[in-house]
Specification:
The structure holds two protein chains of two kinds. By secondary structure, chain A is α/β, with parallel strands linked by helices. In chain A, 23% of the residues lie in helices and 17% in strands. Chain A contains twelve helices and 18 strands. In chain A, strands 5-12-13-14-11-17 form a six-stranded antiparallel sheet. Chain A has a five-stranded parallel sheet with strand order 6-3-2-10-18, covered by helices on one side. Chain B has a domain at 30-111. Helix content of chain B is 49%, strand content 0%. In chain B, helix 3 crosses helix 5. The chains are: A alpha/beta, B mainly alpha. Chains A and B meet through helix 2, helix 6, strand 5, helix 9 and helix 10 of A and helix 5 and helix 6 of B.
């Protein structure tokens, strides 16, 4: 049992100040900030606490678990707390984890920030929309979050605005990282050590430094990789927040005027309960949040809660994600070191008028994993069976490093999360249906990115380059489905994350993103969550009982 | 209906999938067919895939009586006709094979689980930033 685990008792007479739906990256941050400010916080989480000692990376069959019970695709994992997602009309599968810590249990913890230009793409490039806030508005919250989650890195990156000293020195980049960095330099291209929420030294209570096992997507046995069950949630619970696990919300309830009154949910025994609250915060990710809002129809909200704009569930962004991998003539031992916490290049991040696309992308250097992972495809296609199997495996397993390429995937209204009319979860609730198509802009961008990625790998000495132009299992970043903005007809929440229509409903997960930028989004999600929580603390004392 | 596949038939197919290498037997010769079957039972995708592939292996013409080239042709036909099932089956065969210590030895890999020991890396060396630090900031001012 986790030492910070709170009681899980339902008191039908209790009205919480704030009810948070989801205990992941954003829910944990908001719960800590609000409970420390004296708000009475209850959180409902459909998953459970995780015990790092049971993560599968110490099991002999960890590579089998990686493709079954510890897959990051909920449709494969099929735990009782997972809900199925209909992906038949999407080339990308959304991937996530349901539990305390949410997807920070299974993330790489690569933590770059948005650039200032990402908040002004309409003004600068004439595409999508500007955000109602600026980089400067959330910079203090980035810094705060870096300190709590624990950021290893080094200031001075010329591709980004100056930032405060990192709490920990960078994770070592290894000989393979130095090789790729040197290739970038010979081409005159940018590179910099990644910011990561992975301990390079002991940091945080009971958390060791990374021991470079290379498998942090399967949960971190060392507790070196940060996740909100290790930092924000213990803080929140120590300040009185109640985290109720195994609780699946079926509806955000409202009164006759349309204000939120709490949530109806199935408890861990399957009984229907209702938690009353003076306000509700949605923190269920860019698929779960629109799903739940669309499930919460009422006379006051006939299109779903907070959906007068009819934009709930629209503008889904995943990030275009390609893999380019180089096979080198000498051994690189790519299983030594974190998978994707090495170096990045943002040489092609900003819009270049010489290109045939807007915005840009980030190269994120990746290493390989175990032999089973390599044989099953790893960075590219499966190693062939038959007479060539061993020779191809020998080429790839010890000798391959490459890049994940994250492209800015601009919002389009036809990319949606809706309620599937047929598919249900284990509680009988409608499952989400994804409709998604990669835009022409993203396609042209990724062609450019793959070409440049190939160039740098060959410069580094790769004798063969393999490409996955659109990785199917890459929907880690679930964004845009309840966007923020100043215009209630063009957005779901305002600049503070407060619903335009329901003044005691807030959204703090990736749903509120106006654009996705070309970086991993979690630091931005958490910074926005802290900013919204601080708004409630300072401007919405009326929500306190 | 109970599915009780012929282990020898599956092993013969596995030997064509991952053939012997030097003094190391193929995936079938290593005796891994029972584990492939047991692992497949834990996941509907894999269990259905095994049954699909097996139904083709067990069709008239008896896979076990074919020579090596004919067996490869038969497997290619199954792959072509049922690519998803064949792929899932391959994933299980590959994963079980690469869990074996003798296979790790052949690969020249330590074979340890990722945890608890992890790996050793040379420490962070800030001198690698000497060149890139000379580059002027180029982020777009807004």
């Amino acid at each position: 049992m986790h030492p910070a685990m709170s009681d899980q008792t339902h008191d039908p007479n209790r009205t919480a100040d704030v009810l948070i739906i989801g205990a992941g990256a954003s829910g944990g941050a908001a719960a800590a900030w609000l409970s420390e400010a004296g708000f009475d916080v209850v959180c409902l989480e459909q998953g459970h606490w995780q015990d790092a000692a049971t993560y599968p990376t110490a099991d002999a069959d960890y590579e089998f678990k990686q493709m079954s019970s510890w897959s990051y695709n909920p449709n494969v994992r099929k735990l009782p707390e997972d809900y199925p997602v209909n992906t038949s009309d999407s080339p990308i599968n959304p991937v996530m984890f349901n539990g305390v810590g949410g997807s920070t249990i299974m993330w790489a913890a690569h933590t770059p920030r948005f650039h200032p230009s990402d908040f002004r793409v309409k003004t600068l490039d004439g595409v999508a929309d500007d955000w109602p806030i600026s980089y400067q508005d959330i910079e203090p919250w980035y810094d705060l979050n870096d300190g709590i989650m624990g950021c290893a890195g080094i200031a001075g990156d010329p591709a980004n605005p100056p930032r405060s000293p990192r709490p920990m020195p960078p994770i070592p980049i290894g000989h393979d990282g130095e090789m790729i960095a040197a290739a970038f330099e010979r081409l005159g291209w940018h590179w910099w050590p990644s910011d990561n929420y992975v301990n390079s030294v002991r940091f945080g209570e009971g958390r060791d430094a990374c021991n470079f096992c290379g498998h942090n997507l399967m949960g971190c046995y060392q507790r070196a990789k940060s996740s909100t069950d290790l930092n924000y949630w213990p803080r929140a619970i120590n300040h009185g927040a109640e985290l109720r696990t195994g609780c699946r919300v079926s509806e955000i309830t409202t009164d006759s005027s349309g204000r939120a009154t709490g949530a109806r949910y199935f408890d861990s025994e399957g009984n229907t309960q209702h938690q009353s609250a003076r306000s509700v915060i949605m923190a269920s990710n860019g698929v779960g949040t629109p799903r739940l809002l669309l499930m919460s129809k009422s006379d006051a909200h006939p299109n779903g809660l907070a959906n007068g704009s009819r934009l709930v569930g629209k503008n889904l962004m995943f990030h275009a994600f390609a893999i380019v991998a180089g096979v080198f003539p000498e051994h690189k031992e790519p299983w030594v070191g974190p998978l994707a916490n090495i170096i990045q290049s943002q040489e092609f991040y900003e819009t270049d008028p010489n290109n045939d696309f807007s915005r840009g992308y980030t190269f994120q250097m990746n290493r390989g994993q175990g032999p089973g992972w390599t044989a099953r495809g790893g960075f590219s296609d499966r190693v062939p069976w038959g007479k060539d199997h061993h020779s191809v495996m020998d080429q790839r397993f010890r000798n391959t490093v490459g890049f994940g390429i994250i492209g800015d995937d601009l919002p389009e209204e036809h990319n949606t999360v809706t309620l599937d009319p047929n598919l249900k979860d284990s509680s009988g609730l409608p499952s989400p249906k994804i409709n998604y198509a990669l835009s022409d802009n993203s396609r042209r961008m990724m062609i450019h990115a793959i070409d440049k990625g190939t160039e740098v790998l060959k410069e580094a000495g790769a004798t063969e380059v393999t490409v996955d132009p659109l990785m199917r299992e890459s929907g880690w970043h679930l964004l845009g489905t309840a966007r923020m903005g100043n215009d209630p007809e063009r957005s779901v929440v305002d600049a503070n994350g407060q619903s335009h229509e329901v003044d005691n409903l807030f959204i703090i997960d990736g749903s509120v993103f106006v654009t996705g930028a070309a970086v991993n989004p979690t630091p931005t999600i958490q910074a926005l969550a802290l900013r919204t929580a601080d708004y409630i603390v300072n401007q919405r004392q009326d929500l306190k009982g | 209906m109970t599915f009780n596949p012929d282990i020898n038939l599956i092993a013969a197919a596995m030997d064509r999938i991952i053939p012997p290498m030097g003094d190391l037997e193929g995936a079938g010769g290593l005796g891994l067919a029972p584990e492939v079957i047991e692992r497949s039972k834990t996941d509907d995708r894999f269990w259905l895939a095994l049954q699909t592939v097996y139904a083709s292996l067990n069709a008239p013409g008896n896979f076990g009586m074919l020579d090596g080239e004919q067996q490869d042709a038969a497997l290619s036909a199954i792959e072509s006709e049922t690519p998803d099932a064949f792929g899932f089956w391959l994933d299980v065969v590959y994963t079980v094979y690469y869990m074996q210590p003798r296979v790790h030895q052949r690969l020249g890999w330590h074979g340890r689980t990722p945890q608890p020991d992890g790996n050793q890396m040379p420490p962070w060396n800030e001198s690698v930033l000497a060149n890139i630090r000379t580059r002027a900031p180029f982020w777009k001012q807004v």
